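Is this the right way to post structure tokens for a design question? Let me know if I should format differently. Anyway, here goes:
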């Protein structure tokens, strides 16, 4: 399946090395293997594979390879210094693609800077647009499928729901057990798993680490570290409240969403909100990575508990206010209120089962599937 980053990776490789990150099993290896078919003599090396690791450490790959793909290289000690030397000393015309399932700005931060030598791209799960493009189906059909299966390629492409569920059960267990050890100690894995399990039922609500710390008998400081690890491993992402003062925003309760919508425990409304969050983050990070745009994803909640699910900012300005509804076509009270407070922001109520699209004042009520398929990626 052609992914939305395929062409961009090709373009960027002509200028610098490309660092491609994203959740485990989201399609990074498949993308790089398909790309290698266009570079005869190219070489793929995975640091997790013992034979490949020896080649990497000895630097005895084919020097004539037009494309070198290094997977999980951030697990090597002092990887930034090593990669800087390899890139600066590479053969003429040789290009390099670096892939990994952890955020490389978090993983072993110390070491040489790679500034000016690479483009960063982040690969996300499948979107409504990608599914429609690949299978020529209606947006509603694509949305229904992704709500059921999630956007990771293997469960989304599985023949049966049971196969998708078996994949998901193993994926979540293995991810927490194996990848967390790269960041943390063995004795913390069980606590981390319990914390991650609890987050599955808290999607879309402001997160109280203090309350969870009492339930788990673990300090809130430790839970904050666990949350940072889950973010760095692309298991969850955090949406913080909008405020012009960024320091204040980080002190308020965040909301947590999963990259895999299939991991959400709750009703269809929660899964729908999580899916929309994934689409918004994917498009925002696409703009950040490909255009250097100063865009961000937030939510709004006031002291009187008026709340909208999401808002999008560009610089210090709000550009979008977004509320998710399964079937309610009535204007959401808080969305109406905030649309009057920020009249230049586009206020959209995304309805899963929309009977009719209408405009009411500044507020747009839109069919969610049609709105999502119109997004850039």
């Amino acid at each position: 399946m052609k992914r939305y980053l395929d062409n961009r990776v090709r373009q960027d490789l002509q200028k610098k090395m490309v660092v491609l990150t994203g959740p485990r099993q989201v399609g990074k290896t498949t993308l790089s293997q398909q790309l290698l078919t266009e570079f005869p003599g190219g070489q793929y090396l995975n640091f997790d594979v013992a034979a490949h690791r020896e080649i990497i450490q000895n630097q005895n790959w084919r020097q004539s390879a037009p494309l070198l793909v290094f997977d999980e290289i951030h697990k090597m000690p002092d990887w930034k210094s090593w990669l800087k030397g390899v890139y600066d000393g590479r053969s003429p015309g040789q290009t390099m693609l670096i892939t990994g399932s952890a955020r490389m700005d978090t993983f072993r931060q110390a070491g040489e800077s790679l500034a000016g030598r690479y483009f960063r791209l982040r690969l996300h799960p499948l979107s409504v647009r990608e599914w429609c493009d690949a299978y020529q189906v209606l947006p509603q059909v694509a949305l229904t499928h992704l709500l059921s299966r999630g956007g990771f390629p293997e469960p989304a492409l599985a023949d049966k729901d049971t196969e998708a569920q078996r994949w998901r059960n193993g994926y979540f267990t293995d991810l927490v057990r194996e990848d967390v050890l790269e960041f943390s100690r063995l004795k913390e894995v069980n606590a981390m798993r319990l914390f991650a399990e609890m987050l599955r039922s808290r999607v879309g609500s402001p997160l109280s680490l203090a309350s969870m710390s009492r339930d788990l008998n673990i300090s809130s400081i430790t839970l904050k570290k666990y949350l940072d690890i889950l973010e760095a491993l692309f298991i969850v992402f955090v949406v913080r409240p909008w405020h012009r003062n960024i320091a204040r925003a980080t002190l308020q309760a965040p909301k947590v969403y999963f990259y895999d919508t299939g991991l959400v425990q709750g009703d269809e409304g929660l899964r729908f909100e999580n899916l929309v969050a994934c689409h918004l983050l994917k498009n925002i990070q696409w703009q950040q990575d490909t255009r250097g745009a100063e865009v961000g994803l937030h939510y709004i909640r006031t002291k009187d508990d008026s709340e909208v699910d999401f808002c999008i900012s560009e610089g210090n300005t709000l550009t979008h206010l977004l509320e998710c509804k399964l079937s309610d076509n009535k204007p959401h009270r808080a969305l109406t209120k905030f649309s009057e407070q920020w009249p230049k922001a586009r206020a959209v109520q995304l309805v899963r089962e929309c009977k009719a699209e209408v405009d009411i004042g500044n507020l747009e009520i839109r069919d969610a599937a049609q709105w999502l398929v119109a997004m850039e990626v």
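Format looks fine. Someone answered above. Worth noting: The chain has two domains: 6-122, 128-373. Confidence is low (pLDDT under 50) at residues 107-111.
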